Amino acid sequence: MLELETYIERLGQRARAAARELARASTAAKNAALLAMADAIESSQATLLVENENDLAAGRLAGLDAALLDRLTLTAPRIAAMADGLRQIAALPDPVGAVDDLRTRPTGIRVGRMRVPLGVVGIIYESRPNVTADAAGLCLKSGNACILRGGSEALHSNLAIAACIGSGLEAAGLPAAAVQVLERTDRAAVGLLAGLAEYVDIIVPRGGKGLIEAVMRDARVPVLKHLDGVCHVYIDDGADPDMARRIVLNAKTHRYGVCNAMETLLVAAGEAALLPQIAADLREKGVELRGCERARALVPDMLPAGEDDWYAEYLAPILAVRVVDGLDAAIEHIARYGSAHTDAIVTRDVARADRFLREVDSSSVMVNASTRFADGFEYGLGAEIGISTDKLHARGPVGLEGLTSQKWVVLGNGEVRV
To answer: What confidence tens digit (pLDDT) does each residue in 29-56 have?
Structure first.
């Protein structure tokens, strides 16, 4: 344990030193590194696929379920998306150093707030190797050093991506310790990193509820997190039936093992006649339906839903279905069972859409769109460090601004207080 503690502490020391260098790095240098990383990822596609297959083979042998294997898998399009994400980050405005709301006070001083990096960001994540590139890119552009601890099931993939990142940093003359990926798979490393208050400024856990709860338990620094993605789609009275079917199918079946997939479908009683066709659409995709009594009256082969199903984040081809009396009941259901992640309404009524937007207290609230859009790439952030359901500092998909803070700056010309 002492050896592991020493290893983690040294990572922290190097990250703190690198963070000081990054805070003064030019936008041009950071962008050059990002573009070089993207090029390296594309040119290393064959290597990345080989290393990823090593992880997949070990995962199959270990009995990982289909959802975890899907999150672990790299494909040519996913590798291209990683590179594209880095290029999008390079194209975004650099938030560091921007001064907002500069005002002249009666005393003559000018007061504003300057965006500054957080410092050292620790990121703990499972399964998805693309997080390695996304996190590195966002932290670099926002002037932060990062320490990345991926899941042991993705070690080969993560280290291969880290090599591409390292070559990009070197090409731009930036410190190698700006992005460090843990090579140790010891579970104790998670708690040690979360407790490294002397060197780490914020921890971002990305993974299952168990991981996030463990990080929150051990953390001695702020944690940016969401625990569950219990996302809802509500079909309102008078909704366009074709639009409703299209959104429901995409929100549930586009990808199962992601936090912005729909887990509960709510249907207004006046539109419940749509359920048999929606159920047929979902059955074609192999989705198991668990419904309330009113839903099962229309689709008898649905399994009965229990109380736990309304709280469930399945991350699998399973969907809970409930018929509700209308908008008020839908909002009440989401308030009781939701996780404040992403919720959507399908409606033609502008006033009810506005009520849904104002009254559903989630980090992303949508009108006539699939919950799958709750994503940093889709929001134009280039990529995301994670999705926060907290209400302080950052909320929803967290991009560059979410990785900065603000400090007050005062510009004077010899003024003194009297």
So the answer is: 999 999 999 999 999 999 999 999 999 9
